[in-house]
Specification:
single chain; 4-stranded mixed β-sheet; 595 residues; 8-stranded parallel β-sheet; globular; alpha/beta; 3 domains; 23 strands; TIM Barrel
């Protein structure tokens, strides 16, 4: 037993007589977690040092499972006061531990009669022993070592103390870590370069339950298995997400582009170049989840039930990871803590990251991005959440590469040497994107090829190439606002576009910047009308809102929408229905909107 294991065992008070006597020592034996130890203070003024006297002897106790501990933190009446230089023993007398009644648990303290009188008072005041919290393991205590000075005294010389007040005692079970296993059908086709033991070593002793992230991940995976495809719109705010769910969408997409533009923790408007603080997207994930939770609470407080699954899974943009594998590891943990159900990473160089529809994109070697995916998966495993991991490749349009270290990338390197800033020029196109998609497929749940145009033929070629080696591998597709849809496609093709993608295996489809465009266009239209006709313009908006109520829209009653009635109900519960300060009762919304 190490010194560290014993340091909390006991506290010995100071005897003025001992402090004056340089030859005085205090030798004490204490039973600790199944062993006996000799405790010898080097100096009564300094912390006690501990020295193991004998190896532990373990008894098997039926009915106790591994990890069971008892913590006893009693205040004893009267205090246990022992004479100086006297060996003493503390042992638990109730067995088995699991059946001990916390209110009647007893501890026996044994010691021989005092040898001398203290000049500072009665024998019972010479050395005070104050037992602190005593940690007792599931291992039964063995008897004292059979050596001089350690034998228990006759019963008539033993003092038995029990608590005279409610003890701070509990029979507890150490938090049991969830078993790490990768044999579930969920992980079919997923490769890990580490094993369960690695995950167990990296988990804390208490694994936090990330309910929203787990629920979102499991639901997203289930929906993709049950639906021809799951489609989503990019949400910029919590209220946009609420309206999406109210309108019937089953998933939320959170774009890093939109966070950069108008929702980042830097408080700036940025282009999509990873300029904002790295924890900005997790922050918006949390805001969206909080808004969805409030919508759930509002509806449930009104009717006692909910009419929809408010906690729609959120798929969040981790960009290029904001650094190396460790940055990706921490970012993934942040996404999970915020409640994201799915997260995507892209194979660009983080320090030069660009929107997929901009120029100047720089790829990292294939092997380097595999490490990013491994880091993200490891983070999810450590958090015990089956996060849906999406691997995006920008190789279809990226023309630069950081290094030729990976031989898989070399066939795409163009002749002519490096650029002035040290990058290799590479041949872009679908062939390069397919090669990378195949390399990433074992490490991700979905593969996303970022494209420059809405092209069903191109999408089919990519899907067939992936499925030729990885049958059934799920794919993702960005139905981007960066495409000029009407210029590229006719109305019939636009109408069937997502259905056809779904048939190819593109199980998650999304419009990345829908929130940005909806917010800006609707506000521009309102502001332009307001400039021309004043309140007539706003009245038209309000009339449109009332008309939308037939389709389930409720935000025209804005006080109710944000939870005023919910908190009125909280107030009523707190006051027993006697509150005179309820907000909705005399509101203009109640009087004019019929709430």
């Amino acid at each position: 037993v190490s010194v560290a294991d014993l340091e909390r065992a006991i506290t010995v008070g100071e005897d003025p007589a001992l402090l004056d006597d340089p030859e005085a020592t205090l030798e004490t034996s204490a039973e600790w977690a199944g062993c006996w130890a000799r405790i010898t203070p080097d100096d009564a003024r300094r912390p006690i040092t501990f020295e193991a006297a004998e190896a532990p002897v373990v008894w098997d106790l039926d009915g106790l499972s591994p990890g069971t501990w008892m913590i006893a933190g009693y205040t004893w009446e009267p205090p246990i006061n022992l004479w100086s230089r006297a060996p003493w023993v503390v042992r638990v007398v109730d067995q088995p531990v699991a059946e001990a009644d916390p209110a009647s648990l007893q501890v026996a303290a044994t010691f021989p009669p005092p040898r001398r009188q203290s000049r500072h008072g009665s024998p019972s005041q010479a050395v005070g022993l104050r037992p602190p919290a005593l940690l007792v393991s599931m291992e039964a205590f063995a008897g004292p070592p059979r050596r001089s000075g350690y034998a228990l005294l006759p019963l008539d010389q033993q003092l038995l103390f029990s608590t005279t007040r409610t003890p701070r005692t509990a029979i507890m079970t150490e938090p049991k870590q969830p078993a790490v296993t990768f044999t579930d059908a969920r992980w079919e086709g997923v490769t890990r370069s580490y094993d369960a033991a690695d995950v167990e070593r990296l988990r804390p002793s208490v694994v936090v339950e990330h309910t929203l992230a787990r629920r979102g991940a499991e639901r997203l995976w289930q929906l993709m298995g049950e639906r021809p495809y799951v489609n989503a719109l990019g949400a910029l705010t919590g209220n946009q997400a609420v309206q999406q769910v109210r309108a019937g969408l089953e998933a939320i997409y959170l774009s890093g582009w939109q966070v950069a533009a108008d929702a980042n923790l830097g408080g700036q408007m940025y282009p999509d170049q990873s300029l904002y603080p790295a924890n900005s997207v997790p922050s918006v994930v949390k805001r969206i989840n909080n808004a969805l939770l409030r919508a759930d609470q509002v509806e449930r407080s009104e009717s006692g039930e909910t009419t929809r699954e408010w906690l729609a899974p959120i798929v969040a943009d981790a960009e290029a990871g904001f650094g190396g594998p460790l940055n990706a590891f921490e970012l993934m943990k942040g996404m999970i803590e915020a409640g994201a159900g799915g997260v995507h990473f892209e194979d660009q160089l983080a320090s030069e990251k660009k929107c997929g529809h901009l120029g100047g994109k720089v790829l990292v070697p294939t092997s380097q991005f595999v490490r990013t995916l491994t880091a993200a998966r490891l983070a999810a495993d450590v958090c015990d959440v089956p996060t849906v991991l999406i691997a995006r490749t920008d190789a279809n349009s990226a023309k630069l590469l950081t290094s030729d270290v990976d031989e898989r990338d070399r066939r795409f390197i163009e002749p002519g040497g490096r650029t002035p800033d040290g990058f290799f020029r590479v041949r872009d196109g679908l062939e390069s994107a397919i090669a990378r998609g195949l390399a990433y497929a074992p490490y991700a749940d979905l593969i996303w090829c970022e494209t420059s145009t809405p092209d069903l033929a191109e999408a089919r070629r990519f899907a067939e190439a992936i499925h030729d080696q990885f049958p059934g591998k799920r794919l993702a597709y960005n139905c981007s606002p960066s495409f000029n849809w009407k210029r590229k496609l006719d109305d019939v093709t636009i109408a069937k576009f997502q259905r056809e993608l779904g048939a190819m295996g593109y199980k998650f489809q999304f419009v990345t910047l829908a929130g940005f465009h909806a917010l800006n266009h609707s506000m521009f239209q309102l502001a332009r009308g307001y400039k021309e006709s004043g309140m007539t313009a706003y009245s038209r908006l309000q009339v449109a809102e009332f008309a939308a109520e037939e389709q389930g829209y409720t935000a025209v009653r804005h006080q109710r929408e944000v939870g005023t009635g919910y908190f009125d109900r909280v107030t009523q519960v707190i006051t027993g229905g006697q509150a005179s300060t309820l907000a909705m009762k005399e509101s203009t919304e109640a009087q004019q909107f019929g709430t």
